[in-house]
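We emphasize that the prediction below concerns an isolated chain of 321 residues; any contacts that depend on oligomerization or on bound cofactors are therefore not represented. The input was used exactly as deposited, without trimming of termini.
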Amino acid sequence: MISMAKKVLLYEYVTGGGLINEALKSNLYKEAKLMITTLIKDSENNENINSSFFCDNRLSISSVSNSIKINKKNYKKIYNKKILDKFDYIIPILPESNNNLYNYVKFLNDNNIKNLISSPRAIMNTSDKWLFYKKCLNSQIKTIPTYLDKCDLRSNIVIKDRYGEGCSSIKLYKTKRSIIENIENQNKIMQPYIEGIDLSLSVFFDREKFHILSVNKQNLSINKDNLIKLKSILVNITVSFEEKIYALVNKIHKSFFGLYGYIGIDIIVDDKNIFVVEINPRLTTSFVGIKYTKGINLLDLISKKNPYKNIISGKKYLINL
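Result of the prediction step, given as a token string:
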């Protein structure tokens, strides 16, 4: 019996029409384009999957034959159940800001549209940094102390959007006095600035188990406006504390019910601790390098067809942003 290839629709927010009514100048654009172009190439090399993707008509990749062009007149296609039901699965790649990811996945679930991503509840528990902090405390997962307003911090305070993705709008303040006017009524959180090694973990979560795909080194910098920016990622580094990382991911897998698919976990490692900074319940930029370092095609993982057939364990891949 010949199995039919699965029809998969990719919806990456920045390149897929999420910004159709505004200038295409998102600070996430470079990362977004890297991810969607890699996914397109992966699908071309996967006989088990036929993929299509939503594409902002202003982009050159909109000319690709399997693109579904989105413009200002037809952007509601993204929410058109008749179109979405033509596919076996939807893979959403949206930012957590403004609850974009949560709202879209909830829409898919409410309309019984099959998708390959974490549950809405898991997305909310990881997207909302205050909920995430409390969830980590309850699960005894070491994370960075987090405050909504009042705190005892006096200096070196990091301010983040409560609902934000990656290094978007993260600013370091030297003194507490300088931040008072910047945090009131703005859905921000405060955290102490922690020195350490900035790493990310690329993990694939099944319902019952998980696979650590790679450990990655993040190169962060602080610009003249004290904004913390991600400059580059070195994918697939080796570390001396692999057992501790496995134990940490195992605890996350057991504590954050509903996480599924590719998950990015940001951590800071100092002399004594591993702090979980955040969990991204979606594709992250690091995945771009996994194909080149491990020979793993993400869509192979999804289709479960020989996902680990070309392991190249020692190779590294640098992503400049």
